[in-house]
Amino acid sequence: MAVPGEAVLITGVYGTGKTTVCEELAERLESAGVASGAIDLDWLGWIESPQLDAAAADRTYLANLSAVTTNYAEAGVQCLVLAGTVRSNAELDALRTVVPFPVGIVRLILPLEEIERRLSGTVTLGRARDVPNAARWLEHGIGAALCDLTATNDRPARNYRLSRLREGIDDAPGVHGR
User: Fold this and answer.
1) Residue 104 and residue 158: Cα distance in Å, rounded?
2) How far apart are CA 18 and CA 10, in angstroms?
3) Which of 30, 72, 75, 78 is the most exposed, fewest CB within 10 Å of its CB?
């Protein structure tokens, strides 16, 4: 069972399965009777406006994240599962500033060939851009050091024991503490 006031961010490059793992963990928490919430961070920051520069878009995303996570906490949520990509320490610090719980981070990893396979069946314009972006992020190690655990996402999310992520302890194969 999750510790009250716990949050975990499932991160990784495009196509590693962040949203899928987030959904599976949220379902496990619900089945266990844990007061929990799940948020795909992409939706909180998806904004396009000609008068909005990158800094203003980031402020909007953080205001949205703060509002939603605060509402969840006030509703009695004990555990938040977040899915999203964090590229830098500055982004991680900003996220941790607005989320009302301590945030543990699990980075999903996969070989580029598997990411390409997963994304090849998706025909949206955005997904077509994701493969080269994933390749660039992997090549340059973008976001690679920003995690408490890494997990190879070639198995179902049921292997992750959420309540132990804060300590960096897990006995699931493919999960490695930092």
Assistant:
1) 18
2) 6
3) 75
Reference 135, options 11, 16, 10; nearest CA is 16
Beta strands 36-40; 79-83: pairing state: parallel
List the CATH number of the domain containing 66.
3.40.50.300
Q: Looking at the domain assignment, is residue 43 inside a domain?
A: yes
β-pairing, 175-177 with 149-152? Answer: antiparallel
In order along its 178 residues, the chain shows pLDDT tens digits of 344 588 999 988 777 888 888 998 888 888 889 999 999 998 898 888 888 898 998 999 999 999 999 999 999 999 999 999 888 899 999 999 999 999 999 888 888 787 777 777 766 666 667 767 777 776 777 776 677 766 776 654 444 444 444 343 344 334 444 4
Report the SS3 class of residue 78: coil
